[in-house]
Amino acid sequence: MERRRENQSPQVSIARILVEFLEVAITSIVFLKGIYPSDAFERRRYMNVVVHRARHPQLRDYIHSAVKGLQPFIEKGVVDRVVVMFFNNDNIPLERFVFSLTVSQSYKSNVEETDLEFSLRSFLVKLPVSESLSKVLPRDCRWEITAYFCTLPQATPSKEDLWIPTDTKQWDQPPLITPIKSLSSEPLSMQLYLEHANILKTTPRGN
To answer: For residue 53, what are the contacts with CB-CB under 8 A and spacing of at least 6?
Structure first.
């Protein structure tokens, strides 16, 4: 792992570590959901935890490019949520894994990267447990990485930016939320939770 550079701001350090973590965590989520055959992934160690890495270059590059493209926005504290969304052919979400994050813009001290990595490691340990909390998805489901911003970015940081407005439909009712793991600290606060459609609140209307 790349270490902290001299004169690097705390926000840059946090964003760099967080982007690397998100790439691993998102790959782990896709593996757990069984969207692809298990042999499409290979086992590896990250933060002393056994995780999975995509073998297929296009899958690996999509995840890497998507989260890497968020790095300048995470540094500025404008990314509110990073979501791994699974949806059907009608573009209606079936399930969402949500990373809700806040990077402190007022934090000026040096980032203790070892401590931050240890905290993020606990999310990777919790992810396999979430498999029992999530739904079995249909074979023809699709998925994407979606980001929600606190404010709209003023400019695109790269000509190769992958982030475009999504046309995914939203649920009619507030979703059911299942917490998985949370981190609360001065430089970084983050929650990981599951969202499902709240079908219990959907009742037929009378004539």
So the answer is: 24, 27, 41, 42, 43, 44, 60
pLDDT at 138: 84
Between the CA of residue 101 and those of 3, 43, 45, 74, 132, what are the distances in Å?
22, 27, 24, 9, 24
Overall average pLDDT of the 1-6 stretch? 48
What radius of gyration do the chain's Cα atoms show?
18
Taking a C-beta distance cutoff of 8 angstroms, is the pair 176, 195 a contact?
yes
Question: 147: which strand partners?
Answer: 82
pTM for this entry: 0.85
What's the residue count for the chain? 207
State which amino acid sits at residue 82.
Answer: V
Domain boundaries, the chain: 10-152+170-201
Classified by CATH at the fold level, domain 10-152+170-201 comes out as Cell Cycle, Spindle Assembly Checkpoint Protein; Chain A (3.30.900)
